[in-house]
Each structure stands twice: as C-alpha cells, then as structure tokens.
Amino acid sequence: MSMDIKVKMNELRSTERLVRTNSTGNINIMETFRLDEPETYAKHMEWYIKALELRDAGLDSEEKKRAYFEASMKESKIMDDWYYRRCLSTGRFKNPVNVQFTALNTLEAMYSDSNHEISFNYYGKFSDSRSSMWKFGSKFNVLLSADMFNNVKLIDNLDAASEKDKKKLYDMMGTIDRSVREMKQAEKEYEGNLEFLCFGVKLWDDGKVTYHANYKDCENDDGIMADSADELLEKLMSEQ
C-alpha cells in the first residue's frame, strides 16, 4: 500500500469504522458475522425475523409460545455455532474478518478524495439494512456481491493469490474503476437542485453494473436505478 493511501486512510471520516465496531472500539459482532459467513448469517436472520413475527403476532396460546421458543432457539443456535467455531476456535477470541475490514478500508481510501468519501459495502442472499448501498450516507457508494467481496480481501496480499484469483481481482477492479469514474462524472454534470443527492453503483455477479441515486424526499426509499450513468443523469434531471 502506498504512503498516499495510508495517509488518506488516516484522514477518512470514521463512519464506516464506527459501523464495523461498537462504541468502545470493539468489533460489531453482527457485522462480523455477516461479513464472515453470508449464507450462515442469512439462515440466522430468517429465524430471527420469524421469531419477531411470532412475538409481535401475540403469544396468547401454548402453540404460539412453543413456535416462538423454537424459532428463537434456532436463530440463537446458528449464531452461537458460528461464534464458537469461527471466533473462539482456539479458546481465545479472534476476529475472522480482520483481512476483509482492512481490504474495505483500502478500497475506500483508494477511491475517496479531498472533497468526498466513497463507501464500499456488500450484499448477500439476505437483504437488510446492513447490506444497503446507502448505509454510510456517503456522497458516492459501491455495492459488491458476496463473491466479489471474497476477492477484495486479496487486495492487500496479492502474493498469496493464485493467478486465477488475481485475474478475477484485476477484472473486478477494472469494472470498479470505470463505474466509479462514470458515477463521479454524472455527479459533475448534474445541474438540478435535488437535496442530499448521493450516487451509487452496484456490481452484479453476472457482470452487469447498475447506477443509482438517492435524495431527499425520493419516492422510493432505495432511490432510483439505471443501466448507465447517462440514463441515471436523465432520470435525475426529470425529477425536478
């Protein structure tokens, strides 16, 4: 990592770090869980939501209480199994996603500048607020799939990567470079008056890239989407 990137990393606003840790600087265990094993996290969240739905519907019968108890036990068991298997396998706590966190910080520093930060996040099979493109409230945002995210962690340790994985990483970085450049150009060309306007790009596993924007009072909480930066700009100008 170059000295310039290290300096930029130290200067970045700490929103992302705060989300990935708790108020005392310790890791956010749910964020770690999501980053480490997306599929296991998805199973846990499915049972967690099921338990909430059962509870909110009312536990006014033994059958409903039993169903709620079973759902709660299943979601707890899935998380406990992951925690003891991945974080306490040696008897002492170890953060299984330190490499991933470092890679995310590296990417954010590479693409941020003196005017605006850019935030990276990733999505898996389970969609919730943690996987939102707008999670950090940054001016520019990039959303990667779970498979792409697994390649991102190689960015700080290319010597350990196979030639196949290196090619996948280089191809992905090329796509990120191009889409981020187009996203920032759209922001420069925008001449409207929408407030709190944020831009984003989403990279899909099939190679597709979509361009996104969100702003104050947007009718869709997830913002608007287009297949190109030019199309996104046209949609934004029509929102006046």
Task: Write the topology of this structure.
Elements: H1 3-11, H2 15-20, H3 29-36, H4 38-57, H5 62-87, H6 98-111, E1 118-123, E2 140-145, H7 146-152, H8 163-189, E3 198-203, E4 209-214, E5 224-226, H9 229-238
Parallel strand pairs: 1-2, 2-3
Antiparallel strand pairs: 3-4, 4-5
Helix pairs in contact: 1-6, 3-4, 4-5, 8-9
Strand order across the largest sheet: 1-2-3-4-5
- Counted by DSSP, the helix tally is 9
Distance between the termini: 43 Å
Q: What composes the largest sheet? A: 5 strands, mixed
Q: Hey, roughly how much beta strand do the residues contain?
A: 5-15%
Radius of gyration: 20 Å
Gross morphology = globular
The number of distinct β-strands equals 5
- Contiguous uncertain segments of 5+ residues: 1-15
Architecture overview:
By secondary structure, the protein is an alpha/beta fold. Helix content is 53%, strand content 11%. It has a 5-stranded mixed β-sheet with strand order 1-2-3-4-5. The radius of gyration is 20 Å and the shape is globular. The termini are far apart.
Key attributes of the depicted protein:
alpha/beta, five-stranded mixed beta sheet, disordered N terminus, 9 helices, 53% helix, 240 residues
